[in-house]
Amino acid sequence: MPRSKDAPADRSIPSSAASGSDFLQLRAADAPAGGLSDWLAQRLRLAVSDGRLAVGDRLPATRTLAEELRVSRGVVTEAYQRLIEDGHAVGRGRGGTVVVAAPVPAAAPAPERPAERPSPQAVFTAEPGADVFDAVRAAPARIDLSPGTPDLASFPRTAWLRAERRVLGTLAAPGFGYGDPRGTPQLRLAVAKWLARNRGITVSPDEVLIVSGTAQTLALLAQVLHGRGVRELAVEDPGALGARQTLQYWGMRTPPVPVDADGIRVRELRASGAPAVLVTPAHQFPTGVVLGGGRRRELMRWAAEEGGLVIEDDYDAEHRYDRPPVPALRSMLPEHVCHAGSVSKLLAPTLRTGWIVAPPELHGALVDAKRFTDLGNAALPQLVVADLMETGELERRLRHLRKRHRARRDAMIRAIATHLPGAAVQGAAAGLHLTITFDADFPDTALAAAALARGVKVQPLSWHRLDPGRPGLVLGYAASTATEIAEGVAVIGSVLG
Amino acid sequence: MPRSKDAPADRSIPSSAASGSDFLQLRAADAPAGGLSDWLAQRLRLAVSDGRLAVGDRLPATRTLAEELRVSRGVVTEAYQRLIEDGHAVGRGRGGTVVVAAPVPAAAPAPERPAERPSPQAVFTAEPGADVFDAVRAAPARIDLSPGTPDLASFPRTAWLRAERRVLGTLAAPGFGYGDPRGTPQLRLAVAKWLARNRGITVSPDEVLIVSGTAQTLALLAQVLHGRGVRELAVEDPGALGARQTLQYWGMRTPPVPVDADGIRVRELRASGAPAVLVTPAHQFPTGVVLGGGRRRELMRWAAEEGGLVIEDDYDAEHRYDRPPVPALRSMLPEHVCHAGSVSKLLAPTLRTGWIVAPPELHGALVDAKRFTDLGNAALPQLVVADLMETGELERRLRHLRKRHRARRDAMIRAIATHLPGAAVQGAAAGLHLTITFDADFPDTALAAAALARGVKVQPLSWHRLDPGRPGLVLGYAASTATEIAEGVAVIGSVLG
User: Fold this and answer.
1) Distance (Å) from the C-alpha of residue B362 to the closest C-alpha of chain A?
2) Cβ–Cβ gap A202/B372 under 8 Å
3) Interface touch B293/A85, C-beta < 8 Å
4) Is B204 in the same domain as B337?
5) Tens place of pLDDT for every residue, chain A, 497 residues?
6) pTM of the model
7) Residue A351 belongs to a domain with what CATH number?
8) What are phi and psi of B381, to 5 degrees?
């Protein structure tokens, strides 16, 4: 679409040309070089969209408009043709080209959703809804003691980039296409070896399914179980609110089973009649209890005798400070334990990379669910994680994290002793968080709200309880410096005192 | 756990020590430095697992085993304690430590699934099942003319890595944590601008939802619609088998609506009574037809009058060779069109990055579905894609691809004229594939099978048909060189002839 050669620099249209193009407010000089027809078609669509051209209006004759714009007639004919093709206009022979449909103008951008800028009160006063964690995350705070994230500041950016360079340097072209919904062979192998080294699980790479984190594991499992008529999946009480929300979203009732100092009470699980249970045996969330040896056996006996399914959320098992972690439950009873892990606590939650090692009987259905959910995880991040696992970088990172997290845990325990002498500390032997409870009777949501109003973000323990219990807080220490931790706990103390 | 200082280099156990540790086949020299208890506990678990230690057996007295292994007694006590904690053993005071539970040994690694190494026959003779595309992908072939992938060899590895370095250099620590399930603000903004520039859609970043490709868009939409009582979603016939499988997996019936030279026949859609329809208006899959202007209006009228939902799969709209792409349907009727796009055809399918611009009324429910499916896409790839969009790299890539793809398309048309003179070519004005049909009566699956047996992978058109029609093939040209294309088409010709 060449411009006519003698076009002057300024092609603005005189406003007197009523039968022509004045309503278009055209300046051909604004047109991109080489795309006059396209530009004209877009301006015409805009005119239709904002009403300057109404349905039923006839477009200017091509010759007239071409002369006014000082472009070749072909440019105008071509632009009209585009409007005909996209449905805005029809050609009526001698009747010219007539507008027959108008696009609907886009609504003005919606204001930011209320959840984006909640008042501290709003986050904690209502029953926590589906977007409660989005709201918490969006709430501004000087110090964030939310549980669930490792030390993010030390994410191994250099090692990640180096591994990604290796991956991009060696990946053959088909590797950029659609892939295996189970995950790349490289990451499935690396995870199998990781599980053998760190979690006592012997598993073939073919039994590993790569997923987008443990949230997706719960989603896929709930779907598959729902498809088999299961409507009930017992959860620990206290237990993670987020996990419960996910299971409920996917149609599961979540009867609570109490947790004591030895972990989940299997007798109550048995009494509940639920055919499946979600547990956090390595480091219970939120209490931090490690499932005792006797309870492990009881739980396995329940699964074997009742044909029950144990979903083992192994979310921070590697972060044990006093000794090597207890082996995964999965190693005891593969036919009845579905093991769920991820790199969220090893590297970063935002990588959305996790794995399922399911009972063989569920594996195929989970692969189908994964395929029809998203066709499988993206390959590049999988290959980078596999590289970090195979080169030992991830184990180095874990050793570094353990040291760093332990120091931060100690800082938090010291700060609690100083500023919250009445609080009982639980679950500090492992993980990324600890829990404090108060021998008192007040709503811990109010405490969390007051702390947030003073710039300190924490989670109320009651969010994670189904049955009432003592007020408390769940305090993450892994992602904050010792100074921030001391200051944050001091703020909580001053709010309480 | 220090080793005892006078331990000799070789600690293998004499086989005569029946009451002690010979059954353990222990060589303390194999133990990792600094982790003797852990190593011993793992060897004990292994012995329990493979039956050398049976349930009911008493472990050797700690003093005996310590002497035999020439380690301190504390090492053994500690190892026994671990077995007690993980449920394998109980301490019985003077009765010693007794094995009470054995882990179930992992099954031998399953053989590769049959789908991994199908015979060419197996892929094409049966009705295509849920894993048909996995099977096709896994089938070995010298030349791959499957549709659906752009030129993967030219993936911009350097630009990607450069953008990732920028992202990692600037991302603050909280960016590595859990993120907004809707996607990062940066990518939502970049997509909104991309859609305005390239697809004629005016939209606020708050209306954009980032997902894992169009397969996930269909999964989320089907869930949300299902939750509202919708059980039927009309599809184009012929139309993509994969899309249909996804919708059916999520509980939708998929009544077929015929496609002619102008695209989907809206009269038949209306007659079907379906409340929603999936269409590919920019370049119909597989026929390659562009939805005509009159049909666009008819479709919009159907949606407005019937309150119908149009799902616009805009999968390769940017790849138009003869002129700029027709604007997206979404620009015409935002209240009734759900627009789905992705970078699969712009960059690479393996990135699993796409977007939904939904009618406002569906947006919140889709965000919930995304949240409870995977908590949102991984942040790093999102930020890299946003960077490539904002720096103009993606538009450069698109210009490069269009040129390259057009040359390959031309090579394919030439090869078809030479080797398949009886074939009719359709849909070559845009996209990454074309369709050929034969004025004959034979099963095109047999043709595809025969071609695969000769090392050339193609898709039979009948896979994508619901109502019977002429036999044909869907041929992708974007990911193969001109030489491969010529050779592949020659093979098809020789198989036919």
Assistant:
1) 14
2) no
3) yes
4) yes
5) 333 334 333 333 333 333 566 667 676 666 666 678 888 888 888 888 777 888 888 998 888 888 888 888 988 998 998 888 888 888 888 888 998 887 654 444 444 444 445 576 688 888 889 999 999 998 999 999 999 999 999 999 999 999 999 999 999 999 999 999 999 999 999 999 999 989 989 999 999 999 999 999 999 999 999 999 999 999 999 999 999 999 999 999 999 999 999 999 999 999 999 999 999 999 999 999 999 999 999 999 999 999 999 999 998 888 888 777 888 999 889 999 999 999 999 999 999 999 999 999 999 999 999 999 999 999 999 999 999 999 999 999 999 999 999 999 999 999 999 999 999 999 998 899 999 999 999 999 999 999 999 999 999 999 999 888 999 999 999 999 999 999 999 999 999 98
6) 0.87
7) 3.40.640.10
8) -60, -35
- B122 three-state secondary structure: helix
Instruction: Give A282's contacts (C-beta < 8 A, 6+ positions apart).
Output: A290, A291, A314, A315, A316, A317, A320, A325, A326, A328, A430
ipTM of the shown complex: 0.87
8 Å CB contact between B218 and B278: yes
Identify whether residues A409 and A480 lie together within a single domain: yes
Distance between CA atoms of residues B221 and B276, nearest Å: 11
Distance CA B433, CA B288 (A): 8
User: How far is Cα B77 from Cα B373, in angstroms, rounded to an integer?
Assistant: 46
Q: Considering only CA atoms, which of B231, B289, B282, B232 is closest in space to residue B259?
A: B289
CATH number of the domain to which A489 belongs: 3.90.1150.10
- Contact status, residue A433 vs residue A478, Cβ threshold 8 Å: yes
Q: B77 burial class (0-12, 13-18, 19+ CB within 10 angstroms)? A: middle
Q: How far apart are CA B482 and CA B145, in angstroms?
A: 11
> Quick one: chain A helix, strand, coil %, rounded to 5?
45, 15, 40
CA gap A38, A30 in Å, rounded:
12
| B281 and B363 part of one domain | yes
Q: Has residue A267 been placed in a domain? A: yes
Distance from CA of B391 to the nearest CA of A (A): 19
Q: Are residues A298 and A184 in the same domain?
A: yes
| Beta-sheet pairing, B456-457 with B143-144 | parallel
Domain range for A227 = 180-388
- In chain A, which residues have their Cβ closer than 8 Å to the Cβ of B213? 374-375
Provide the residue count of chain B.
497
A303 and A440 assigned to the same domain: no
Q: Do both A218 and A284 map to the same domain?
A: yes
Q: Do B374 and A42 touch (CB under 8 A)?
A: no
Residue A367: CA atoms inside 13 Å, Cβ hemisphere, count?
20
Chain B residues closer than 8 Å to A180 by CB: 134, 137
> Token pair 């709200």 is at which residue?
A449
Among A361, A388, A415, give the residue marking a domain's end: A388
What is the total count of domains within chain B? 3
Residues of A in contact with B300 (CB under 8 A): 87, 101
- The answer on A207 and A131 residing in a single domain is no
Match 């609080």 to its residue by tokens.
A423
User: Which residues from B are below 8 Å from A332, CB to CB?
Assistant: 87, 101, 103-104
CB A204 within 8 A of CB B109: yes
Cβ distance B289 to B263 under 8 Å?
yes
d(CA A219, CA A271): 26
Q: Are residues B89 and B127 in the same domain?
A: no
How far apart, in whole angstroms, are the C-alpha atoms of residue A246 and residue B256? Answer: 34
Q: Locate A154 and state its tokens.
A: 């030390």
**Among all chains, which residue has been given the structure tokens 């004209």?**
A40
